[in-house]
Amino acid sequence: MINEKKVKWGVLGAAKIAVTKVIPAMQLGEWSEVAGLASRDGKKAADAASELGIEKVYGSYEELLADPEIEAVYNPLPNHLHVPWTVKAAEAGKHVLCEKPISLTVEEARTLLEVRDRTGVLIEEAFMVRTHPQWLFVEEAIRSGRIGKLQMITGSFSYFNRDPRNIRNNPGYGGGALMDIGCYPIFIARMIYGEEPRRVLGLIDRDPEMKIDRHVSAILDFPSGQASFTCSTQVVPYQRMQFFGTSGRIEVEIPFNIPVDTPTRIFIDDGSDLYGRNVEIVEIRAADQYTIQGDLFSKAIRVGSQPAISLENSMNNMAVIEALFRSAESGGWEKPEGAAATETRG
To answer: Could you read off the pLDDT of 230-277 as tens digits, one per residue?
Structure first.
């Protein structure tokens, strides 16, 4: 791969996920080159860039967006800044890979559709799990009938963090369990069913001091089956996804924070033994989902193809999140509203 084919990336901010996971992974890509890092704290930007071997440092986000050499921007800013700076980057002619959730509301997400169509840039929500080999395997196994007809999906995702200074615990910044981690089982359920839920039911418990949603339980009613999940920011760290069919079950051991240095494991149960003695364990080769994500987006820029996840898909994910918040308030089923007409798998 010659260097000229690599897309030159700029990063907005020095968020932990950017400097510890995404940037190092993208630097290993065949299509991606992280060329610049911007921060409102000049020293923070310089220190991070030096440690990561990034050539250019900018003392403001505006300065990075004004650089004609930067072709694409990775936006890992706090949730409430996703849409404003994605819009500014698109207006500057930059393609944007934006951390999830893509927005705080469906209406905000809709503004991104407008700016994308008007500027012609690519904008994608960074659901890195979408193209990891383990999820491609699970998707194909279920589509091929490995567990019969899919009927139910269940999931859990949790960690413990009660630090009031952490942006994930600030409701004004879009903090809370549903936005931060509940969005993942929603995305996966929609992806695997290949359709949108007709209605949803949500139960939310809020932290009495910080007011963020700390424990969430949800049911999603799809035309083809059901999905349920729990997520929490104040219980023991855990994550798992299971898929139940008429003749088998698939369990994903580490569905979201997928390790980069060891194979992942998929358990396929034919239901013949309640104690799991006949469960087949499939190992999926180790891969870095952030490297894959960055390279696929960069390649889409170079060859003129569509990104792995459409903005319409992301807007529909946000519609489910909004409906769950409404359900927690109303105490009843709510229908996702404002969804875009799109192929859910795209």
So the answer is: 999 999 999 999 999 999 999 999 999 999 999 999 999 999 999 989
In the chain, what is the straight-line distance between the N-terminal and C-terminal CA atoms, in Å?
27
SS (H, E, C) 43-89: HHHHHHHHHHCCCEEECCHHHHHCCCCCCEEEECCCHHHHHHHHHHH
Q: What is the DSSP string of 275-334?
A: T-TT-EEEEE----HHHHHHHHHHHHHHHT---SS-HHHHHHHHHHHHHHHHHHHHSS-B
Q: What's the CA gap between 85 and 62, in Å, rounded?
A: 9
Residues 220/228, Cβ–Cβ less than 8 Å: yes
- Write the burial class of residue 305 (CB in 10 Å: 0-12 exposed, 13-18 middle, 19+ buried): exposed
**pLDDT tens digits, 64-101:** 999 999 999 999 999 999 999 999 999 999 999 999 99
SS3 245: strand
Q: What are phi and psi of 60, to 5 degrees?
A: -155, 160
93-107 pLDDT tens trace: 999 999 999 999 999
- Chain-centre distance of CA 167, in angstroms? 17
- Give the integer Cα–Cα distance in Å for 344 and 317: 9
